[in-house]
Design goal:
Layout lengths: L1 H16 L3 H5 L3 E5 L6 H17 L2 E4 L7 H13 L4 E4 L8 H9 L4 E4 L11 E5 L1 H15 L4 E7 L5 H14 L5 E8 L4 H14 L5 E4 L2 H13 L7 E5 L3 H9 L2 E6 L2 H16 L9 E4 L2 E4 L6 H4 L6
Parallel strand pairs: 1-2, 1-3, 3-4, 4-5, 5-11, 6-7, 6-8, 8-9, 9-10
Antiparallel strand pairs: 10-12
The chain binds alpha-D-tagatopyranose (T6T).
Amino acid sequence: TRQKFRTALAAGAVLAAMGLSNANAKTYTIALVPGIATDPFYITMQRGAAAEAKKLGVHLIWQGGASFSPETQIPILQALLAKHPDALVIAPTNKKALINPIKQYVSAHIPVISVDTTISDHGLLKSRITSNNTQGGAAAAKAIATFAHERGDVAVINVKPGISTTDARQKGFLAQMKHYPNMKVVAIEYDNDSPTKAFTEAQLLLLKYSHLKGIFGTNVFSAQGAGKAVDSSGKKGRVNVVGYDAEPGEVKLLKQGVVTTLIVQQPALEGKLGVKYAYDILSGHAGSVPKSKLLDNITAITKNANDPDISKYFYKS
Ligand code: T6T
């Protein structure tokens, strides 16, 4: 065995001298940093990413914070940079605050891809993968208008300004609402991604605007809070909640008819593409990676919530 060991060592040395062993043995490490670790949207994204990493033989590091904020995300990025992953896939929690931390990766020659959210400096990114958020916001406005027969007051519960996805959803929503002269957006509230804050805000809206026809909740926690408030106030059927995303709590409210429409994204596909594009770039196929990839949304309504062609898109927690 000693002899065999010596032979193996010698063979390794010959391959290394020929520059072959490293090229063949390289396992890429891709870091994926979600907006927040505990959100079923990102948990579903992680599943898609992990399956793709397994398929490609890539080592995936998944690390996210306990809240959706640059304050928790930036230290995670800095700690990860010290490990020097081969690529970074990230859902930046703010369009501006994440520019400098991402620049540090670019300076270290680590390719960066944004997934879901993005930063305003697109030049730093090899690719941007996201849903069509403007279309999703407009679809939400159409759903609310249809329910209200294009008449009456509506409100928005959003996360906070400065997030690319939810800003675009709100923009799409407001632009579409302009098509309904007899409808008015009476309030836009921000819940800081807290379901309890969204719940309280929705309760106050229901008190202040007694004739409110609808609330648009722009992500998981905003929609959950709005739905629960309408449910507990007994206003189901009178106030139409349209929400973004499809985690189990929202789907339950959809099936009950409290939430009438959900704009559903494809987080597993986003995670899969994030890993695939990173791998393509690292393995010399950068040419096949699009600078921008916009994914379609799926519209789920109370009536089709049990249809397998729709429910297959619902998120896992
Ligand atoms: O709506 C998703 C995501 O697209 C958004 O950027 C942040 O909120 C979610 O994670 C849902 O909570």
